[in-house]
TrEMBL record:
HTH lacI-type domain boundaries: 9-63
Highest taxon of source: Bacteria
Transmembrane segments: none
Listed Gene3D superfamilies: 3.40.50.2300, lambda repressor-like DNA-binding domains (1.10.260.40)
Protein name: LacI family transcriptional regulator
Key words of the record: DNA-binding, Transcription, Transcription regulation
Length: 348
């Protein structure tokens, strides 16, 4: 049985075919977890057979939900983030949610107004690598929030194993004979930068290596190029960069100066963006499961929104949803060193 051409299918049609009430159809389509699985399956099957598609506006009036997720990120021009956003969008679509996106241009002062502007249009937020202060973000958490690439108590979070990634990179350089290395740091407000630096310090200390820290720089190719002369002037044989863009900027400037990579200086990036494998020499880097970060972030957020009494934080900064409702959830995504052509043995 299918709907007649040119005739709009209604909730009552779906209810009649499924053998349930119209209100059960509304609940099954708008909030499936509130009905018995067998009822949900019958309703969804009937809706498919009839070609029925719920009206999002009408559904939001019934449920008080928008079926939208807000995503706030610092820079869409950074190749790391589009991959994460694509995974977020794919996972959200599977759960019948749309994604509203805003880019803050690496400006912490833009983040809070951006969240406020989107708050009435979404049911919850995914904050990707937010730059604003913890207290500022807590103050605007009137909707459920999950944080990606940063940890802010009491929000659920999804982060990469930055320490493990740095440990792999340092062990690789140590095996190649490097004993004095540098790190070109990313933005001062970046949690990932601080976390990577902590892991790097621990790894070099454990192996008795000397670490020279340079930065902070913008997380861009230009930022890396600006730091390259300082690296070249330091007594180091290898450099680790905050991310791949910074690493590419370093390589670009070294090559312009006639400094051979990896013959004279080895270079390691972080993130494994697509272009890292395409440049010359191909970039050794620490790969992050960017798609996994996006998918897990969506799952955490939807679970948080589905929890009884789900909401943001009260003005005192405590969880309105109460403990055990997702506010303490922390997920860590593995990292993996990818060895390519930008690292080599110390020149003898």
């Amino acid at each position: 049985m299918i709907g007649e051409p040119g005739v709009a299918v209604t909730i009552k049609d779906v209810a009649r075919l499924a053998g349930v009430s119209a209100s059960s159809v509304c609940r099954a389509l708008a909030d499936p977890d509130r009905v018995r699985p067998e009822t949900r399956d019958r309703v969804q099957t009937a809706a498919r057979q009839l070609g029925y598609h719920p009206n999002r506006v009408a559904r939001s009036l019934i449920t008080g939900r928008t079926a939208n997720i807000g995503v706030v990120l610092p820079d869409l021009g950074n190749p790391f983030f589009p991959t994460v956003v694509k995974a977020i969008q794919t996972q959200a679509r599977r759960r019948d949610y749309a994604v509203l996106l805003t880019d803050t241009d690496e400006d912490p002062a833009v983040e809070v107004p951006a969240i406020r502007a989107l708050a009435m249009q979404v049911d919850g937020f995914l904050l990707c690598s937010p730059r604003a202060a913890d207290d500022e973000l807590r103050a605007v958490a009137e909707k459920p929030m999950v944080v990606l690439n940063r940890r802010i108590s009491p929000f659920p979070s999804v982060t990469a194993d930055n320490s493990g990634g740095m440990r792999q990179a340092v062990s690789h350089l140590h095996a190649l004979g490097h004993r004095t290395i540098s790190y070109v740091a990313g933005p001062r407000t970046s949690w990932s930068n601080r976390d990577r630096l902590r892991g790097l310090r621990a790894a070099t200390s454990a192996l008795g290596m000397t670490l020279i820290e340079i930065g902070n720089v913008a997380p861009t190719v230009a930022g890396g190029a600006a730091a390259a002369d300082l690296v070249a002037a330091a007594p180091v044989t290898a450099v680790l960069a905050y991310n791949d863009l910074v690493a590419l900027g370093l390589v670009q400037r070294f090559q312009a100066r006639g400094i051979a990579v990896p013959g004279q200086l080895s270079v390691v990036g972080f993130d494994d963006i697509l272009v890292a494998a395409l440049v010359g020499p191909p970039l050794t880097t620490v790969a992050i499961g960017k798609e996994q970060i996006g998918r897990v972030g969506v799952d955490l957020l939807l679970a948080l929104m589905a929890a009884p009494g789900a909401a943001g934080l009260d003005r005192a900064g405590s969880e309105r949803a109460g403990p055990g409702r997702g506010g303490r959830a922390r997920r860590v995504v593995p990292t993996q060193l990818i060895v390519r052509g930008s690292t080599g043995p110390v020149a003898r």
